[in-house]
Protein 1
Amino acid sequence: MNIVVLVKQVPDSGAERSLRADDNTVDRGAASNVINEMDEYAIEEALKITEAHGGEVTVLTMGPAGASDSIRKALSMGPAKAVHIVDDALRGSCAVSTSKVIAAALGGLNADIILCGSESTDGRVQVLPHMLAERLGVAALTGARKLTVDGSTLTIERQTDEGYEVVTASTPAVVSVWDTINEPRYPSFKGIMAAKKKPVDTKSLADLGVDASEVGFAGATSTVLDHAQRPPRSAGQKVVDEGDGGVKLVEYLATEKFV
Amino acid sequence: MDFSLSDEERAIRDTVRSFVVKEVLPLEDTVLRRERAHEPGLHLEELRELQQKARKFGFWGLATPEEYGGMGLPAVVQSLIWTELGRTIVPFRFGGEADNILFYANDAQKEEFLLPTIEGTRISCFAITEPGAGSDAANITMSARQDGDDWILNGEKTFITNGNEADFAIVVAVTDRSLGARKGGATAFLVDRSMGWRSEFIQTMGEGGPASLIFEDVRVPSRNILGEVGKGFELGMQWIGKGRYTIPSHAIGIAERALEMALAHARSRETFGRAIGENQAIQWMIADSEVELEAARMLVLRAAWTVDSGRDPRHASSMAKLYGASMVNNVVDRVLQIHGGMGYTRELPIERWYRQVRLYRIFEGTDEMQRLIISRDLLRGYTMIGL
Ligand SMILES: Cc1cc2nc3c(=O)[nH]c(=O)nc-3n(C[C@H](O)[C@H](O)[C@H](O)COP(=O)(O)OP(=O)(O)OC[C@H]3O[C@@H](n4cnc5c(N)ncnc54)[C@H](O)[C@@H]3O)c2cc1C
Ligand SMILES: Cc1cc2nc3c(=O)[nH]c(=O)nc-3n(C[C@H](O)[C@H](O)[C@H](O)COP(=O)(O)OP(=O)(O)OC[C@H]3O[C@@H](n4cnc5c(N)ncnc54)[C@H](O)[C@@H]3O)c2cc1C
């Protein structure tokens, strides 16, 4: 099995995050940057599959030069090598153009499975896996809480609000995972020491044959025009219990569509 | 001059940090609750379980050489790790460690003492301090009298960490009264508890406590001598030398965490209609703490670097231990003050740190002993100012 895992560097969701005042993009300079949490589960799943069935794991990242920190961290968990797409023209890319660039990079990688997190904690649009599958003309096994590999047949349990759906496809396919799928390993001491020597192939837009005008701010299909702080929480609504407190509570929950 | 960590150093530190956050921090409430009930915060089995979990990804034996299954880490990296461990009140440490001087054991002793200590199946303690000899460790009087191929030990050791739990002790005793400890009169013995010493628990202001070890005609065979006859004092000093950078490394972690708590409290606690952090009185406490914390970090990392670079680490380590211990006492005191009445309660870990870090100015060389070493080496011209 040849597996490519998509790894995105994002601002740490546990720390203060902000958007830039000038162009409304995520302020990556101010934030402390980490691997998108969900991607660690994708890496773990890829490693488990290759440990059981053989094969090689490649990390694929599109991001600024500083994302190399996250690539090293990913490599220290066990993958063999990485591809890093870096190009100044990529800043401001929307999901549509991001999928275009990643699809172009995947072209040369010959993956049986493309594993990724179901969402990233900065954008949270959840569309990239589907767009990628569409561009590559392969199946989209998204939102997995379990993945089984049987020869070239992939079966996932797709997590839904009500329960799960069993979905099957044959390789190659895009599989996106939730954090219910496994428990990511810690980078091992040996893995950390080995990560530096693992090859990281840096690619520019020109290397991938993608025109700069199709990506970044230039090619964005959506643009953030403005942003504002979330308004402070307004005072809650007090329910006085006059023997009918329970009913009043349920009525409130119903009007707010919680029940 | 480059103050940044290498990729590997950062990766190791980050891995320890996430291990602490995911596996160790969740135990804090339990530890605090048990300690409030005067029970040990973390049971030995729980510690071992965490250590085995870390061993699975290779974090085992920070200082233990690779041929013994350890990581053989440079002192700088060990220091970074001890700082991370200082960020939790849970008394966690990585497994696979043994007293540095146990590595001088001969092959038979390695089998019997070193390897099981690394593995965690035996527990050691190191005993030099006596009721009549602490700072002046060369003044020890515990006697070891030769009797055929055995030695008979008599006397008392005190304040011995792990003395209650240990099943063997590394004991420094006087083998030749005419020479004096420093001049070849003291020897280190590996003494099984089953040979007849007993321990008595000593209550302290900290959690847990050390022990007195009482030796009454304890018979120890010659094969249990660690190193050579007459070399016990040197071994003792080497044992103590190790703590000179691990203790302040730990102190830095405690101070980081405590200061973070103080920042959060200063932002959110309001008096007289505004956050207390808007008052200069609070701001100055925060600023002073941060400056001292970072100064200690520099001293400690430099001391560790001195160890790694093969220089005599004594001067740098004494400065790091002296300053690091005093820094954490100052910071915890201010952080407690910023928390007002809450800081004084046992709901928060602050008062626990307050009790814990007081020890740092006492053991493994008191403040005064560090000052003695620092000034003596300057006065006799062994160390030059500015180097
Ligand atoms: C919790 C705990 C754990 C310990 N663990 C161990 C252990 O595992 N193994 C072990 O062997 N020991 C251990 N010790 C002992 C520790 O190393 C000693 O307590 C320490 O060396 C100080 O010795 P002392 O208590 O006898 O104080 P003293 O030496 O009596 O000193 C009393 C005071 O006088 C000062 N002083 C002494 N001489 C001078 C001088 N010349 N000039 C200026 N001031 C001076 C000291 O700095 C101190 O302030 C432990 C102690 C504690 C409290
Ligand atoms: C053991 C104990 C017994 C007590 N007994 C009693 C009792 O019997 N009866 C009773 O009524 N209360 C009692 N108290 C409460 C005690 O008086 C308060 O804890 C104390 O007044 C501090 O208030 P606080 O804890 O709310 O701290 P805060 O008022 O929140 O202060 C937090 C920190 O901010 C500082 N600070 C606050 N405002 C300013 C400012 N404007 N400028 C600069 N710094 C500022 C404070 O000095 C402190 O360092 C007791 C407390 C304890 C711990």
Protein 2
Amino acid sequence: MQKITKETYIKWYEDMLFWRKFEDKLAAVYIQQKVRGFLHLYNGQEAVLAGALHAMDLSKDKMITAYRNHVQPIGMGVDPKRVMAELFGKATGTSQGLGGSMHIFSKEHRFYGGHGIVGGQIPLGAGIAFGDKYHDSDAVTLCCFGDGAARQGSLHETFNLAMLWNLPVVFVCENNGYAMGTSVKRTASHEDIYKLGLGYEMPCAPVDGMNPIKVAEAFDEAIQRARTGGGPTFLELKTYRYRGHSMSDAQHYRTKAEVEEYKKIDPISQVKDVILSKKYATEADLKKIDADVKKRVLECEKFADESPYPDKSVMYDVVYEQEDYPFLQHKI
Amino acid sequence: MRTIQFREAICEAMSEEMRRDESIYLMGEEVAEYNGAYKASKGMLDEFGAKRVIDTPIAELGFAGIAVGSTMTGNRPIVEYMTFNFSLVGIDQIINNAAKIRQMSGGQFKCPIVFRGPTGSAGQLGATHSQAFESWFANTPGLKVIVPSNVYDAKGLLKAAIRDDDPVIFMESEQMYGDKGEVPDGEYVLPIGVADIKREGTDVTIVSFGKIIKEAYKAADELQKEGISCEIIDLRTVRPLDINAVLDSVKKTNRLVILEEAWPFGNVSTEITYQVQAQAFDYLDAPIVKINTADTPAPYSPELLAEWLPNSNDVVKAVKKVMYK
Ligand SMILES: Cc1ncc(C[n+]2csc(CCOP(=O)(O)OP(=O)(O)O)c2C)c(N)n1
Ligand SMILES: [Mg+2]
């Protein structure tokens, strides 16, 4: 893993702030009905992504996750304008407006989606790793899912197969405390999700998911293990989501005080504190970054706003590889 | 009569039946403490307690199977799927177990269970969250499939489903839970397998079911202005199919349009089309027209989604086509 330097901290600050503001912008335009459907925001969980990206080799490693998926592709190199355009349902979006908020994909940047069925992406992540191993690649796949998804049968079948076939995959449970309105403690007889690895003799551990340094270190070990033929690892990232599950969530299942408690260990402020105390940058420098982030987010909105909707024929064009597939007519 | 919301009709039907019969329980994601993802079980945890109103982890295969298993020792479960899209994770338990236990055991075990939740599209939710599997379940011997379109039917039919001794798939819609309608003050039960003539008419029969039937009402209003009289039949139950109600109407109007929110290949409309041509060929004055969703996964983008879905305009066009106007 590259050393964690002054530049790393500045990058983390800038990236995490951008992700946060990008999501805040989506919440704002959702109210204006420019983005519709479900909208699941990543606010609070940014350290997981920042730390993971630091440990990954972005020239080859891969990532797949669930529907809380807007900022991961941006972190992996996708133009945020195109992500925003996808949420607006525009032709310039990452899936030409076909996928929407839960389905961001980028083959170019090795981001494998964006999946809406809870737990459905867990076997896919292992399958991507299977393909890499098959083709003698030393790339590693980060297969991310929530604490709720950890209760699906797909996880257990996949864990067993990934160990049996020694696949180069890191299973990443982003435990943000809740699956919709259901707290982790209401879903199992114990709260240590990472222990699910034990029954499969998969190396597993809990990680402080609010601190990008701790995250990067844990990922580095897991990724190196996978890259050098050591097989899967299961990491449970203890993190927190600040916003509701989606946009229509009254959040009666938790207190405001609980949310405030987590904001005290906010990943962005943790990184900012280090930057200021170690004098990596001044308040004025950071203000400049803040202003730049704000400007870039506005540019995304403008781009998405001004882009056209996709042509109706796209609806058919993207379904099959076969160019002249004979679709049935559905109306006259 | 009282005016209540669709979600309240669901809640009343479940609650009344649970008061009547101790062996009934409600199980699913967010049904208890959250009062239901769409508030269709509001207050039920308070009334019946955690033994009978049971929150599950996200484990559709496991809890579907556990519910089916419990019918073998005397329970009558109601399983809520947050949407039927997620029932696919547990569909093995529905098709291979619930639908077959009675037959495989030579009639020793009955399987009185209701799987309920929303079906179909509900706005820009994308490809995996906009699917209608009525015809998948209706294809399976052993199951019954009910898809109500209004508050009154929903309550009466859900009570019938819960009382039924066979497995019933009961499909609602996110976009109907807020609908209001009148229900009687007292209890009532509606028969499974009986269609309902929602509007009488003379020129053309429109058959539909579920929330999309509203597009037929709009079209009929429009066509009325042009002097075209539509008879609208709400199937209410898809399996068993009340084909006689359709045949009687077609024998009167001699023209048939079918409106169904589902992919066009081998769906409920296809079966109706077959039966009508087989049993009332000589009564038809025009080929039957069916209107469905596009033959693709649901697109997210708003303009594409509008094209993908059937609407009242499509119904107007179809009616005019079968009337050669
Ligand atoms: C199979 C399936 N069941 C239910 C849902 C509805 N649903 C969407 S997100 C969600 C909660 C998932 O929680 P978690 O895995 O902890 O992820 P988080 O939202 O916290 O990121 C549920 C129940 C779904 N999309 N797919
Ligand atoms: Mg969660």
Protein 3
Amino acid sequence: MTVTAEKLTETPTQTPLVTMRLWRGDATGGCFVDYEVEASEGEVVLDVVHRVQATQAPDLAVRWNCKAGKCGSCSAEVNGRPRLMCMTRMSTLPPGEAVTIAPMKTFPILKDLVSDVSFNYVVARQIPPLAPRPREADGTHRIAQVDIDRVQEFHKCIECFLCQDVCHVIRDHEGNKAHFAGPRFFVRAAALEMHPLDTLDRRPLLRHHLGLAYCNITKCCTEVCPVGIKITDNSIIPLKERVVDGYFDPIAWLGRKIRRKPARTPVTEPLAPQATAGANGPRPGRRSPGEA
Amino acid sequence: MSTLEQRAPAVAPSPIPVHLGGVRGGPKAATLRRDRWWVAPVLTVSALLAFVGYSTWAAFQNRDYYVGAAMHRDYLSPFYSPCITANCQVKFGPVIGSWWQISPAILILIFPLGFRLTCYYYRRSYYRSFLWAPPACAVADARPRYSGESRFPLIFQNVHRYFFYFGVIFNVILTYDAVEAFRFPGDGGIGVGVGTLIFVVNAVLLWLYSLSCHSCRHLCGGQVNSFSSHPIRYAVWKRLTPLNRRHMLFAWMSLFWVAFTDVYVRLVASGAIHDPKLF
Ligand code: SF4
Ligand code: SF4
Ligand code: FES
Ligand code: FES
């Protein structure tokens, strides 16, 4: 098809208007407010939310950073589904209907679309980071590519916490937050447990403190993960199987007795947090050195 | 049995409390989804109930499960295989004596039933569609209490790998049945009928289902951390992984086909249809 220059410069006679139904409020309460705004083709939800902010609601709170699906800041619930606003195209939403945007439900609200995700940082501190085995004689660590391939999938996590938000274990049962780490941290635990250099055994921690058994593998975390980590199949179920090895399988127990494999050091209690993290102190949720 | 804790702990115990509370944002609605999220649970419930209904009925029939030499075939319904009771129409050499009076299928179906009930995929589907925990993603759980698989009875889901072992044994037996289905006693000795093909497909699908099992993937290689020092287990794991990705597909296909195989045998055995010999 050929497009004439004339056609390209033509201004559309009518700019399509959409209704953005945004949650406005804070811890004291709130409600949905409708905003009619223009939305042009190819825009993402975050663009349109920004237009609302620029033209009609300058006090609208919305968290974002990269607008490229890399920082994990713009998580919210678009038409009831946990999504990154910057990666949700307007064209994928049902036309002619209001676009409903609410803050993530699982975490406390700060203001409007911004929720307080510090629950996740509290959990992050509980998991001991990589404890690599001693370096080789020449002072290096050597890892074969096949040994690290599997955990590299987990390192794609951008900590958007959409999986934590959608997980019904804490979404619908606030009390479980005391003993359930959530899918993001099962991904992290799997990355550490399957790491070829690691010397710790986090299975006791997973079983008794991080609530791995609370997950009923219903796979919503996998459905929402914006970077496509197969959270349930590749991290949670393998971890569950590893816990079965350690606690529920007499044959595996016998195998351990017979082969006397060098055991990793079991971690039975959550790691305490650094009380005050100074400028150079460990930041919660950061990857530890050595994690490829 | 010793547990992992009996070895010395590596990290000094100092648990930290998680700060609960805070006021959640958004409306107090069970869901804001407006798409048809209920379709999947409805389909799952219908399909599973249909299968359970049919298999229960078929198991209690205790007849028309074997097409034998009288019809020049050797087809044994997968619901009744291995037929190990004395009251069987086909003899594997009875392991269970004549005290077993009811249908032999009842004895056999326990194992495939246990395998599928504890299967990670079926768990996902019945937790969603029957228990509504959750009915769909970002749709609220039906019940206020929830402890997942951490307590009795659901903690027993952890035995899944043992059912997997039984599943493999059953696959060997059903593969044997598929081979037997090539026997055409009194009709040329060896041949291929429509039933033969149905049995072969049945065996293939059951193998695909078992080999794509998550426990299988773990036991065959997933449990090692250093693939480079276990090249054979790595090779197996690498081949099982793409199958594992399709576990859901194989779960449904094999479920459907096993019932279909039984239907076919039942129809031929009762004389309702004739099994055409292809070559
Ligand atoms: S699979 Fe497990 S961790 Fe993931 S959302 Fe479901 S219950 Fe939560
Ligand atoms: S695992 Fe996926 S959904 Fe969960 S925090 Fe990481 S990127 Fe987000
Ligand atoms: S703004 Fe960074 S992920 Fe959306
Ligand atoms: S058979 Fe489905 S996970 Fe094992």
Protein 4
Amino acid sequence: MLLDVNHLSVEFQESQGSIKAVRNISFSVDKGETLVILGESGCGKSVSMQAIMGLFHDQANINIKGSVKLHGHELLTLNEQKRHQIRGKQISMIFQDPMSSLNPTMKIGDQIAEVLITHKAYAKQEAWQEAILLLEKTRISDAHLRVNQYPFELSGGMLQRVMIAMSIACKPDILIADEPTTALDVSVQEQILDLLKTLQAEEAMSLILITHDFGVACQMADQVAVMYAGKIIEYGALDSVFYDTGHPYTKKLKASIPRLDHPQGKPLTVIEGSPPDLFNPPKGCAFTARCDFAMRICNKKHPQAYTLNSEKTSDSTHGSPSHCADCWIHDDDCPKPIKTAYRKIK
Amino acid sequence: MTTKQTSAKTLEPPKMDEKEFLPYKGRTPDIIQRPSRNYWQQAFSKLKTNPSALISLLIIIALVVFTLIGDKIWTVDPYDQDLTQISSPPSFNKKALVIPDKIHYQPIIQPSKEEYTLKTTSSGMSVIGTPTTQFIAFKWQPVAGAKGYQIFRHEYLPQHIDDLGVPLGENEGGEHVSYLDALRLEPIDYFYSIIPIFDEGQSTQYSTIKLTAMDAIPLSDAVELGIIPIHQKTNYLGKFIHLPAHPLGTDYLGRDLLARLIEGAKTSLFIGVLAPLIFVFLGMLYGGISGFLGGKADEIMMRFVDFIIALPFLLFMILFKVAFGIGPGESGIFPMLMALILLSWPSVARLIRGQVLQLKEMPYIQASKLMGANVFHLTLKHMLPNVTGLLLVTLTFAIPSAIFTEAFLSFIGMGVVPPTPSWGSLCNDGIHTLLTHPHELFFPALFISVTVLAFNLLGDGLRDAFDVKMKEDQR
Amino acid sequence: MSETLHTQKTTSYPWLAYAIKRLISGVIAIWFIATATFFGMHLIPGDPLSSEKKMSPQIRKNLEARYGLDKPLLTQYGIFLKNIAKGDFGISFTQENRRVNDIIREHFPISALLGVLALIFATLGGIFLGAFAATHKNQLSDHVIMLMVILVVSVPGFVFAALSQLGIMKINDAFNTDFPIAGFSSLSHLVVPSIVLGLGTLAYLTRLMRSSLLDIESADYIRTAKAKGLSNAQIFAKHKLRNALLPVVTVLGPAVAGITTGGFVVEMIFAIPGLGKYFVEAVQQLDYTVIMGTAVFYGGFLVLTVILVDILYGWVDPRIQVVK
Ligand SMILES: Nc1ncnc2c1ncn2[C@@H]1O[C@H](COP(=O)(O)OP(=O)(O)OP(=O)(O)O)[C@@H](O)[C@H]1O
Ligand SMILES: [Mg+2]
């Protein structure tokens, strides 16, 4: 495995208590593979990725547990110097809002060249030449003009291309893209996703893509991890998760994909209620309050991960994880009628 | 999570009740409930958690009490001059010897009989009578051949003849061997030195005596101050009496500093609070109207504001103060108030206008407009509550800067005119005696600083509590 | 690519247009200052010559003619404006035959030198202390610096001036040294006065720099810089510092104004023969032409400073050219 994340937890110590933003998540990513992490706003997607990047290390009020291994080497306990060497070179990240993620008073060229100068000891001249090439690779128009511009002079889509150019500058083993398309309009979204896919194939890079759009997941993913209230509640290969969905929450996410074949006038499904308070995450399954199939046990005890071995996905590629979901519905004790009712809904 | 057992049963045999799998009834969409409180309650509960703002508030209340009823408690007249205690440091229980009004002193004339030379020790020098703060007299052995003596006074023991510096006085004639010093004496140790002068010039020898001056008060002064009754005044001669207490000392005219600070607080806080109240109100009106009208009117009104803001503030404070302030019997308070108001309202107007423009675009204002609410109602109902936080914070920050302005102008002599005290003019008085009596500058400066500090900290607290965003500007 | 450029590479010079626009508004502001000064001074009851003691009607007439006081107010105003446009501020009332221009020429350089030293001390010190406090947030040194800042901001400047003078005197007494206490005959006379003068601005800039750095600390682009693998020192030097300095640049205009007027007091206390001391004396002696001349001169100087700072800001912050 290229990247192995095990039992990662992140807590923010605030004056009112601690926010348990990420609670004991585990997943892994293989070389060249795409993992899509799905989940609604505030479920801890960004926080978990930033913890993997070690971006919280100089903050005092944060408690990180678990392990993150890249090529088998632990990242969380690295010393500062080593961490700086790995970031941006072996593992790099694209952030949610490209406009605010770029330094407003620094030329685009400088911001890209900086990575090359730092990691590859390029001279400034060289680095700028390389920056133009990188920008061209992201299919931005007039790359040689762009390097001399400032972020406020570019559109959101162009800025995201700049971010991508910057993050692939050192040909990282793994690229984390945190909702790279959320801030962009639909036509640009498609282009950016295409670009990511092409680049990934060219460089044989692994990709972790974060989104709250199941549609994007279908388009990009090899593996899918669904997060809810700081936990991964379903995890598996895309096909398996899509066709043999193991968690009521995932089903609802699926139902909220806008589809062309929907009857006209039928409103999109909305997931009612709001996610739980992360100061005091419930003892049982966090989704209980919003779940159509909630049982008494759900409120009392968090279900363990049940592996779902359906025939359809048993041919899943070697090494990749099996499909599992945290839901009592898969327990042997769960009454038949509930199981049937669950299976019936889309 | 990568490899898990197929069934839960094999890992942990759960002894689970069948009932546990019954549908869960407590399904309530858990909307996060927070106690709903209004803007003011929220702001004040936030303010309550801010210790420095709370302490500042207490200090400000104490200051107001000090200003309003201080002169009822400390009834000393701030204009009364206690000439027996000029520039006296803080004292509560000072005693003084009652001495006759007339100084009984006869210069001693004693021609030299034999050869006598001076040594640096107090050889041949001796005191006449009791050294007091009213006068100190002393005499010395005549030096043969001297045609006069130079007398020096120091507050430390001179180590060498070169340390003596400028003489206090000079006696002509070798037989004039005594000296009376009544020049601004204080109850401390004095070192008097004498050097004989010969025909060929100054002697290389000198002699020094150390004398400690004792607090003393002439009889008639004590009667005048009402310390001793007039009909039995002679009984008190040579006795010690208590002098009037001056908890913060006196100034260079012997006026009680505490009383003057109370009186000065009236001036300083009058200007410091009234001016901001007025200009914040004016600015609110102007800015509110401008923002409300919008369009061309707003543009013209704001252009005018821009011009006044462009005026260098303190420079024009001085000019306007001068322009308004020439007139007989003018204490300088009114011109300063006028100048402060004239120059300060525009920045408030600009702030309020911005806020009003922003509020005007708010959906709820737009909505109530559509519902047919009239303009006046709209302003009062929706706008006022929203700008009060901003106004309060602006006011709190305006007060210390007004106090500073008053102090600055009074200090350079462009503000409050003597004898009216203000904290600034007291500082101005105090600076002249800084080297010898630092308390005269220290106390007024302390009052200014503590007041300004308290208002600034309270302002910081209010700003956080009301969550007001404002650009800090400096004058 | 479907995205189109938001901004075209403009062939004109937005920077120049901006500067010219600002300069025109500056001229208007100076006119306003001159007008306010003129009518402000003529509001004064009585006339400039009434303070002089007994004066024969003939002499009075001559003087009135000499200062143009015999003409109607509006004519005087017109002449005043015309002279200002020519850069002529007239002749002093109290020091006969001395031209206000000469007074300014002689005394302003000293004030300017003092002010520049104070400004350098305040800006460098404020930036350094603010950055130091921000990088040591919530540590002892941060608390100490911020406490000092609050104290300095709350104590009137003249108190520091007086105290420093007292301090030098005590040091001179104790160590037999000879540091200058007052006057101006060499640059060393300006060391302590400029420190005292810059102190308030230093405190203000320290606070500004600290809060601006702390704001930036949580900015998204700093996170990006970390993710790129830059070291903390690199991030500080290349990303934080410049952006944190932007707010500092915006307050340089008001800071110059503060230092200029603060200079009045410092020049008075340290007996430095600058224009500020002269201005205060002129006000005390009601020397009308000197008051008006120096006020307009100072006003113009400050207006120009603010414009210069704005242009400087446009140069430091690339975004400004389009926003304006
Ligand atoms: N620095 C922080 N300090 C305290 N709490 C934080 C911090 N960063 C994130 N959180 C909290 O952690 C939780 C998870 O946040 P996160 O940013 O990971 O959400 P997300 O899944 O990325 O959502 P989105 O789709 O909106 O980006 C949120 O409740 C958030 O309030
Ligand atoms: Mg996120």
